[in-house]
Automatic annotation (TrEMBL):
Belongs to the tRNA nucleotidyltransferase/poly(A) polymerase family. Keywords: Magnesium, Metal-binding, Nucleotide-binding, Nucleotidyltransferase, RNA-binding, Transferase, tRNA processing. GO terms for biological process: tRNA processing. InterPro entries: HD/PDEase_dom, HD_domain, NT_sf, PolA_pol_head_dom, tRNA_CCA-adding_enzyme. Residues 229-387 form the HD/PDEase domain. GO terms for molecular function: metal ion binding; nucleotide binding; nucleotidyltransferase activity; RNA binding. This is HD/PDEase domain-containing protein. CDD domains: NT_ClassII-CCAase (cd05398). Pfam families: HD, PolyA_pol. SUPFAM superfamilies: Nucleotidyltransferase, Poly A polymerase C-terminal region-like. It comes from the Bacteria.
Length: 471
């Protein structure tokens, strides 16, 4: 495969400025930028390998381009320059040759290089590709440059699954075998959480999550022994996750439900949190399982107990923010509510309003989780869809009424000479209905109707009796 500069046209001026600072030093475009050129993907991050000190060179670039300088690793001689919000430049130095730099990289698809000066001269180039990265890209494989390097940096195994999710690639069998013996014990929890959230933020990652379970990685991140040991609960939870992911891409639902789906699907972080809640919505079922005298199985309190467990794990173990941990907690804690309303003897406005009030900011998420749960369990969700539409319609109606400002009020009726009393409720109620129906749009129109009906004697006004002046 030969590369041209066309994929880098948006960054040509920046590349020229950077190349102008190198002197006689070698400068290469490396890593994900080269990979994305081949895949014709837009990239907002450019990785460079520079002969000599990467940090010193990055500092010069930052000064020249008035960017922000960030040290990434003094040990690895890596630094970052942020030119603007949408463009990040990473630099790493190499002492002997570019081959040494590429040999130290994680995966073959990221271990390719293109000389920047030759690119700017308009030359057609084949990348420096000592480990077969192009071949692996064509096969759709994530392969380690050196499988043994996973032991030295176990986080790389999660990065492998992240690249597989991002690029829709498969994990190489040798790398999956390495994953089965990889311990995440010494890896910073925040870095694990970061990679996991990136994975979950991509669409259709259910098969990859399943592979991570087979490799034992998810069990290390979430040490819920009883959950993982219960095949029925675990397999159902995975099925619900797979169903949810399909729902996030489908358009078959009624418009009100589809709006909620599209809103969540447009936010990768929110999507990832919902997927976490979905995968572990039944995490406490194994420990709350009881069999009654009639042989039926019950899981009393599994929703609230599981919600607390997930919040503790996310916040204390994985260092999630309090807001994100509480978000997942609330989705899990409320995930039975919609089912109870939908299968109840009667769908009342009181029950629907109570659902909206209790679920508050996670109502849409609870609805989607319950839809996925219902479909994975019974293969149909028509009763749930009907209930959700009714809840959403009522919520819209309530919101409109809350924002409703009557054109005519009691003071206006008093100004017409009417005395406060039960008749006010009748008159104002009629006027509000006319206003809702857009049959009146001004105060004057409303008062004109009242005057006309007073004149016609349509209102049953109380007899005032004799006035004091007539006694």
């Amino acid at each position: 495969m030969r590369f041209k500069l066309s994929g880098l046209k948006p960054h040509t001026d920046i590349l020229k400025q950077i190349a102008g600072l190198t002197g006689d030093k070698e400068l290469y475009l490396v890593g994900g930028a080269v990979r994305d050129l081949f895949l014709e993907r837009k990239t907002l991050d450019l990785d460079f390998a520079v002969q000599g000190s990467g940090m010193k060179f990055a500092s010069r670039v930052a000064r020249k381009m008035k960017g922000a300088f960030v040290t990434l690793s003094e040990e690895e001689d890596e630094a970052r320059v942020v030119i603007r919000k949408e463009l990040i430049l990473d630099f790493r130095g190499f002492k002997r040759s570019i081959m040494d730099d590429l040999a130290s990289r994680d995966f073959t698809i990221n271990a390719m290089a293109l000389p920047v000066k030759a690119l700017l001269e308009g030359q057609d180039l084949s990348p420096i590709d000592p480990f077969g990265g192009i071949n692996d890209i064509e096969k759709g494989l994530v392969c380690a440059v050196d499988p043994g390097s996973i032991k030295a940096d176990p986080l790389r195994i999660l990065r492998a699954y992240r690249f597989a999710a991002q690029l829709r690639f498969r994990i190489d069998s040798a790398l999956e075998h390495e994953a089965e013996s990889t311990s995440l014990e010494g890896v910073a929890r925040e870095r694990i959480a970061y990679e996991l959230m990136l994975i979950l933020g991509f669409p259709r990652v259910y098969p990859l999550i399943n592979r991570m379970i087979v490799a034992g990685l998810m069990q290390q991140i979430f040490p819920f022994d009883e959950f993982w040991a219960d095949y029925a609960v675990r397999s159902h939870s995975l099925a619900v996750l797979g169903t949810l992911e399909r729902m996030l891409e489908e358009r078959r639902f009624p418009p009100l439900i589809r709006e909620r789906i599209e809103e969540i699907a447009a936010d990768p972080h929110r999507t990832a949190l919902l997927k976490l809640a979905t995968l572990f919505h039944d995490v406490s079922k194994p420990e709350t399982k009881v069999r009654t005298d009639n042989g039926r199985m019950h899981f009393y309190g599994h929703d609230t107990k599981g919600a607390r467990k997930m919040r503790r794990t996310l916040q204390k173990e994985l260092r999630f923010s309090r807001a994100d941990a509480e978000y997942v907690e609330q989705v899990i804690a409320r995930h039975m509510h919609l089912h109870l309303i939908a299968t109840g003897p009667q769908l009342t406005e009181r029950a629907m309003r109570r659902f909206s009030r209790m679920c508050a900011d996670v109502a849409s998420e609870v609805m989607l989780l319950d839809l996925a749960d219902g479909f994975a369990t019974a293969g149909r969700t028509r009763h749930l869809e009907y209930t959700i539409v009714k809840i959403l319609e009522l919520a819209i109606q309530d919101a409109k009424r809350a924002a409703f400002v009557p054109l005519v009020n009691g003071h206006d009726l008093i100004a017409l000479g009417l005395e406060p009393g039960p008749i006010f409720k009748v008159i104002l109620g009629e006027l509000e209905e006319l206003q809702w129906e857009r049959k009146i749009t001004t105060k004057e129109e409303g008062l004109a109707i009242v005057k006309e009906r007073l004149k016609e004697g349509e209102y049953n006004l109380p007899d005032r009796g004799p006035t004091s002046s007539s006694q």
